[in-house]
Amino acid sequence: MGQRGEAGRAGDDVRSDVHVAVELRTSGGLTLEVVSKVDAFFGISIRETAEHVLTTLGVRHAQVAIDDKGALPFVLQARLEAAARRAGIVVQGDARPERTVSPPRSARDRLRRSRLYLPGNEPKFMVNAGLHHPDAVILDLEDSVHPAEKDSARLLVRNALRCVDFVGAERMVRINQLPLGLEDLETIVPEAPDLILLPKTEESGQVGQVVDRIRQIQDEVGGGEPIWLMPIIESARGVENAFAIADAAETVAALTIGLEDYTADLGVAKTVEGEESEYARRRLVNAARAAGVQAIDSVYGDVGDVEGLRAWGRRARAWGYDGMGCIHPRQIEPIHEAFAPTAEEVEKARKIVAAFEQAEAKGLSVVSLGTRMVDPPVVLRAQRLVALARRTGMLPEEGQ
């Protein structure tokens, strides 16, 4: 027998995944052994998919064992390719699944109240993530993926971008810290994710490296729409360079902070109150606004503390943040509530905007509301709040 490669997960607690073992040999063709609870219904499809992927990759002779735990085709295809690559096969063809989703491109200033982290090597979390209606999903290749599984996770995330309907959620990918993250880009950029998160960003030059590599890859595959970037500030050095990082490229759409690594860098404990990180979080908002990008807060780690999450989110909004991360679907609704304007705020803003539009229609340079004069910054803030209310459904869209 020749070299052997394995990928995927096996065990009684595994769902929506598959374990694949590929052992190369010099003759005998492909021999498939399939174990699946749904073999009677999907066994033929599993075998046909395996044969197609392996022959496309250039595997002609191999013993292949497939232990299926309810994996969808895009998962099986990713695991087969990872196992074949680990067995040492020199890939000869493109075994990517047919693209079945083509969501509209994401706007630079789109709504980003919530972004749900999904471990990049766990397909069970990807399939139904969009049904929870986060503003974005993050297919994570960094901290949630074991170093030995980075290669397999890249292929799974690649296939998910081609095949999973995230129900309107922005499709984000968190790559690894540079330079490993540049390798992630080779696999991810051709699939046109909406946004890429850059972990542990400390210098504007790191943003430049990613921008250059994205441009090179897009040129190689035939161009493409802009891919937005969201650098993650996770160190004292990153905080001090926050503006330069946010202002490093036109494709930077937002700036965010990772408090676990930041507090570790300071050598202090991360607390529920967050006093130890207040300086950094406030400075990040200022840097983001100065650069004209969104400010996105960190995650709230205690999934069971809903009231604590709401309080954190309301405080973040009061400081100027546009949203925050979440690590569990149950955090999405409280985050959306925390970042929504109150009915009183919306009504006041609507009146200010109406007064401004009336003054503008009359050619007046001064805006008044009742007995009060309204300054231009107040009008701008009101316009932004009304726009947010429309985007979140609190007010009907213009013309409706």
Structural features:
single chain; 400 residues; alpha/beta; Ribosomal Protein S5, domain 2; TIM Barrel; eight-stranded parallel β-barrel; 14 helices; 42% helix
How does this structure look, described?
It is elongated, with a radius of gyration of 24 Å. α1 (39-57) crosses α2 (73-86). 42% of the residues lie in helices and 18% in strands. The model has no long low-confidence stretch (mean pLDDT 92). It has 14 helices and 14 strands. Strands 5-6-7-8-9-10-11-12 form an eight-stranded parallel beta barrel. A four-stranded mixed β-sheet has the order 1-2-4-3, with helices on one face. Strands 13-14 form a two-stranded antiparallel sheet. β8 (195-198), α6 (204-221) and β9 form a beta-alpha-beta unit. The protein has three domains: 4-86, Ribosomal Protein S5, domain 2; 114-338, Phosphoenolpyruvate-binding domains (TIM Barrel), CATH 3.20.20; 343-391, no CATH class. With 400 residues, it is α/β, with parallel strands linked by helices.
In short:
The chain is α/β, with parallel strands linked by helices and 400 residues long. Helices cover 42% and strands 18% of the residues. It contains 14 helices and 14 strands.
Question: Secondary-structure blueprint of this entry?
Answer:
Layout: E1 4-7, E2 17-24, E3 30-36, H1 39-57, E4 62-69, H2 73-86, E5 114-119, H3 123-126, E6 136-140, H4 150-163, E7 170-174, H5 180-188, E8 195-198, H6 204-221, E9 228-233, H7 236-240, H8 242-246, E10 254-257, H9 259-266, H10 278-291, E11 294-297, H11 306-319, E12 323-326, H12 332-338, H13 343-361, E13 367-369, E14 372-374, H14 376-391
Helix pairs in contact: 1-2, 2-4, 11-12, 13-14
